[in-house]
Request: fold
Amino acid sequence: MFDIFKKPYADSKQLPLASGPGPILIIIFGYLLVVFKAGRKFMEHREPYNLRGVLKCYNMFQIFYNVMMLLPGYYFMFVVRPYNLRCMTILPQDHPLKNWERTISYAYYINKIVDLLDTFFCVLRKKYSQITFLHVFHHVLMPSVGYLIIRFQGYGGHLFFLCSFNVIVHIFMYGYYYSAMEGKTVSWKRYLTLMQMMQFVLMFGHCAFTAMQRECDASQGLLFLVSCSAAVMFIMFANFYFQCYVQPKVKEN
Reply:
């Protein structure tokens, strides 16, 4: 089973934090250690930190980062148009636009690692109730699967389009966080969850659509993996939505 890890990397150009399993394993292990043990031990006899300024800067950074991925990404897909949108396969290594595809995809992978800071801020603020199973599972899943896809599949292709859904959601999500910190009345929190659920429906649907293209040589294994991940995440977010927004109203009535 482990012979698969002896295969050469799908992409000939190996970039930092994606050139071997060591870095991402250390990051994930360190993340879990801080979140569930070391971080809580450190905060045990300390008052919650006031990170208002830090969080405002972080949210603005995330908005800017995601916009700077979304705009070039859509320009690449719909203006430059290197892909057949009915069957989006990874560009060959010698393709003149390969560096463009690789750079945007790698930026997305790095952003999933940066997203881990969300949980660290919860620990430093002693907002342990926000560190749910869904929260941790999502944050661990994204960079872990991201590395495996880069390792065995390469950068771009079918996932280039799917990840754009997630980027859009993150722009609205961090926009909501920033507005809430500014003290503005924000009434669309529940719609963020609905938007997250919708992205998983779109991801699942696009995978199914691609899989039905008989002449498409996109990886069937990858389509299956992404479809299963989207289905699991949809169920978990739907459960979260029900517990937060539906069940309380039922009890009130």
